[in-house]
Specification:
single chain, mainly alpha, elongated
């Protein structure tokens, strides 16, 4: 679309919404987030903030999910949310919606909600809390991840929030101990494992040694290989090769796959060294195959 076309579209949108009443504007809102909807949102928030707060908080207590979606979108754009927070609590709006409304807010915060949280409220709370980065929130998010009562999909998304907070404040990682990670790995869920390994890769090396022991099981050996890959730790080839000791044929296939993914991350010089080494027979074969694929052999 040309600049002229974009300009004309902007003008037409402005003309179509300028001077209309709040009710007329609100009736045009839909779940589709196109340029017209964004313009309608902006006009409503700028010119009818008080009306919008009352109207859309009422909408959040209704049964129509499309209207609730629109209400969250519009209310989240209000800059001063102090009165809005009081309205949400007063009307007993489900905190799951309130958390989403305040998710990206840096001025006002939504703190008046009943505890304990229900399962469908956990992820919206964690996303809001991870954005504002309060240390007390981190403790609550950690407890959600640790709870065995919460579904695996909740644990996965909570771990994403923990990683987000830790990127901004690495010191928070000190609040995670071996028991935290052990509990996650006991879920035996692939997605949970992947996120837990990614988080563990940001911890000191000694943490991994406490949590994962290759002598325990093939599963822990595989998790260690994934950890090496997550940390891009290319100095663990010898240790990875030792994981083949005492495993069954079907376990070898799983370990081959994980070590293959690990070796595929190696720079060419290190991959060649692994392929040419005499002492690491298992790794050498996989590295040779990967090198051959890269060279089109």
């Amino acid at each position: 679309m040309t600049r002229i076309s974009l300009f004309m579209l902007s003008v037409s949108v402005f003309v179509s919404v300028f001077g209309e009443s709040f009710g007329e504007l609100a009736s045009k809102l839909t779940i589709y987030e196109d340029s017209l909807q964004m313009s309608l949102d902006s006009v409503i928030v700028a010119d009818y903030s008080a009306e919008a707060e009352n109207y859309f908080t009422d909408m959040l207590t209704g049964c129509d999910w499309t209207k609730r979606y629109v209400a969250v979108r519009v209310l989240s754009k209000i800059e001063d949310k102090k009165n809005l927070a009081e309205l949400l609590a007063e009307k007993r709006v489900d905190p799951a919606y309130s958390f989403r409304i305040f998710e990206n807010d840096s001025n006002d915060f939504f703190t008046d909600y009943p505890k304990p949280l229900k399962e469908h409220q956990l992820v919206p709370f964690a996303r809001m809390a991870s954005k504002r980065g309060w240390e007390g929130d981190f403790d609550e998010i950690r407890r959600i991840a640790e709870s065995k009562e919460n579904a695996d999909y909740v644990a996965v998304q909570i771990l994403d929030c923990i990683s987000f907070m830790a990127e901004k404040n690495p010191g928070l990682l000190l609040k995670l101990d071996a028991r935290f990670f052990t509990g996650l790995f006991k879920r035996e869920n692939q997605a949970v494992n992947d996120n837990a390994v990614m988080l563990l890769s940001k911890m000191p090396d000694s943490s991994a040694e406490i949590v994962l022991d290759p002598k325990n099981s093939i599963e822990e050996r595989i998790l260690l290989v994934r950890l090496f890959a997550s940390k891009l730790d290319f100095g663990k080839v010898k240790e990875a090769d030792s994981f083949y000791e005492g495993i069954l044929p079907n376990q070898r296939l799983m370990l081959d796959f994980e070590i293959g993914k690990y070796l595929s991350l190696f720079p060419e010089s290190l991959l060649s060294a692994a392929a040419d080494g005499d002492s690491l027979a298992n790794v050498r074969k996989i590295a040779t195959d990967i090198k051959g694929e890269l060279n089109g052999e």
